[in-house]
Amino acid sequence: MGTFENALKRELGKNTGKAISNFVFGDAHSTPYRRTSSRRSSPPVETYALRKTARQLKDEHLALMLEKERDVAYEELLRKQRLEEEHQREIFKLEQEAERNRIETENLNQLSREIESALNLDVSDFPDTKSFLSNISAKLTVRNWNNLSFLNSLLSNDRKKDKERKKMENQLYDIYLSKFQIVLGESVQVLTNVDIDVYSKLLLQFCKKRKVSPQTQLIDALEKQKIASLQANNQGSEGLNVFSNKEPDITYSDVTENVNSDNLPDKDAILPNIVNLNEDNLIENRLAEIWKKYVAVIGNQAERRPIFVTDAIKDSILYIGINPNFYEGDDDILLHSANGESLFYENVCGELNPPEYFRELEEFTRGISANASYSHLNLLYARENDRKHLLSLDSNFIREQLELTYDLIIKINPSIVVFFSDYCKHLIFGKGRWIDPVSFNKRDGYYILNGTQIPVLFTEDVTTLKEPSYLQNKIKNILL
To answer: How many CB atoms are located within 10 Å of the residue 86 CB?
Structure first.
């Protein structure tokens, strides 16, 4: 018992002492007690890298120097490449400028030859007076005159040459205009009132573009002849009234029967009206000259033979696209021109088994009239699928192709011209161009080809039309 009592006394005394201490001192006297996990982690043991040897330091320094040398060498290589590229660009620029100057000089020489030819031009060189006047009016209409330009001319940096070119162009224009007025005045007596109206209108257009006045005596002579013709017609009509004033009997059923007919146009009837467009190798020789002249500025077109059609049907419906597509196999499939520098195909109107595209043109034409015939041309002869790229080429390269096409249109003398695609309209539509907006016939909805009385329509390719009947009826009404 004594041991237990002693232990109890000690424990009571110890606890009593703690209680008194806590009451008097609070926590100030106590020994901090913390859990192991709440202790602050001891600072990491500092590690020491092994000291590098002198050989290692030398090798690292050498590697760093080599890397810097490589960077310097690479920068120098890039600098030399940039200088070489700039040098090549300068050489190309100089070559292009030299080529432009060569072309400009050649154009001046060509203008000089045309001036000489125009001076020697005579009405006796043509079948009749109207052919002469039509030829002159075509030249006055489509040439790339200074104040009639429908594309940006390729002008050299030589202002002297530029001034000389403009002077020669105006000189050539004035020669043609003078001859047009002279021959028109000499042939007044044989012109009909329709002819007088056409040529008078053209004369005023040509004079306005050169900012000159037409010859007063010529205008008076044309007006007097027109009045005289009207008086003669009035006298003749009095005698005609004795017989009959009945109009020809035309029924719609006749037109419907023709439209629904499955008969192809009579090939034998077409043959006498076929026009040889490439007579005396005219087209292929002109194309060869154009390609040779602009070979240095037309890119891959220099390696591609142009394509043309050899013949057409006079007074037919003429469909005109922008240019032929490029196909690798054309050189093996199509016929080669006599000089070997062009490809060509023949008109297929009336053929039993034409290619698919021309068969669709045939079907569209037969929807207008079973006896109607058609011809097909392209504005340009360069084979290219990217039309925007084609039209970005040298403007004179484009212009000379257009001039050739205009001459062919005049030779065909179509009953109507239907141009396909907005690209065609972009090239030839506008003031001073082939198709002037002021020529629009509001009643029938067509334009007039400058220098002619040929009606013109713009549309998408007729072979792609979902409802072609509207356009077919429109063409039918224009041709009636």
So the answer is: 10
Instruction: Report in angstroms the alpha-carbon separations of 253 from 124, 212, 311, 376.
Output: 48, 53, 34, 30
* 386's tokens: 């990217």
Among 323, 335, 430, smallest CA distance to 385 is for 323
The answer to whether the Cα torsion of 178, 183, 189, 192 is positive or negative is negative
> What type of residue is 122?
D
pLDDT tens digits, residue range 429-466? 988 788 989 889 988 899 999 888 899 999 988 888 88
Report the first-to-last Cα separation within the chain, whole angstroms. 149
**114: Cβ–Cβ under 8 A, 6 or more apart, which residues?**
172
- As a whole number of angstroms, the distance between CA 184 and CA 204 comes to 13
Whole-prediction pTM value?
0.59
What is the percent of the chain where pLDDT is above 70? 81
DSSP element (H, E) containing 458 = strand 455-459
Looking up tokens 């509207």 gives 470
pLDDT at 409: 93
Structure tokens at 48: 């020491």
Asked whether 317 and 372 are in contact (CB, 8 A), the reply is yes
Which of 151-155, 329-333, 378-382 is least confident?
151-155
